[in-house]
Amino acid sequence: MPILYHHPLCPHSRFVRLILAEYGIETTLIEERAAERRREFLMLDPAGRTPLLVDDDGSVIAGASVIVEYLEDCLPSDFTGLRLMPRGLRERVETRRLIDWFNVKFFDEVTNYLVTEKVYKRFLAPEIGGGAPDMDLLRVARANLRPHIRYIGYLTEARRWLAGESLTYADFAAAAHLSCVDYLGDVPWDEDETVKHWYQRIKSRPAFRPLLADRTPGMTPGPVYAELDF
Prior knowledge:
There is one protein chain. Helix content is 49%, strand content 6%. With 230 residues, the chain is of the alpha+beta class. The protein has a 4-stranded mixed sheet with strand order 2-1-3-4. Helix 1 runs parallel beside helix 3 and helix 4 packs antiparallel against helix 5. The N and C termini lie far apart (36 Å).
C-alpha cells in the first residue's frame, strides 16, 4: 500500500488526500512535522516538505502538484470514473493555472500564515521557531483572504465549477486550503453565498469525510467545520 507523509492541517497534504480518496486509492498515512527536519524524512526528500508519496515499488514522489499528476498518469486505461484533469487543452491549462493559484498564491498570502502561526508554532520548540502566534501576520492573512473569496465567487458565478463545467483538481486544491482556514474558524462564509454553496457541494463528497474527522490536539475546529449544511 502506498505511504503518504502528511500533516493533517497542511493544505497541500489535504489536496493530495482528497484526490487519493476521490480516486479510491487506499494509502497508509504517516503524520510528519516537516519543521522538525527528521533525518529519515529528509533522506526521502531533501526538500523536507509535505506531502510526500512513497509508492508500492519504492518510487518517491514529492510535492502536491507532482503527486496528483503522477496519480493521474497511473490511472488504468480502463478507468471509468470521473477524471479530474480535463481532456481539452484550454480546460487543462485553466485547471493547472488554478491549482497554481491556490497552492502557491493563496498559500503564500493566506494559508501559510494562518496554519504556521496558529498550528505549527504551537508544537515546535522555541529554538526552531515555536512560540506564540504573530497577531500582525494573522491580521494580514485574514485581510488577504477576502479578495480570494471574491475571486472564487467570481469564478463560480460564471461556471459550474472553478475551472469550467466539470469538477477538476482545481476545485480540490481550493477546497483543501479553505478547509484548513475553516478548521481555524477564519472563513467569512456570510460574505459570499455563491462561494458557500460551491464549498457545500464539494464538502459533501465522500472524499471529504476523512478530512472532516481530523482533529488537532488542543484545537477545537471552527463551528461549521464538520457541518455539510451551514
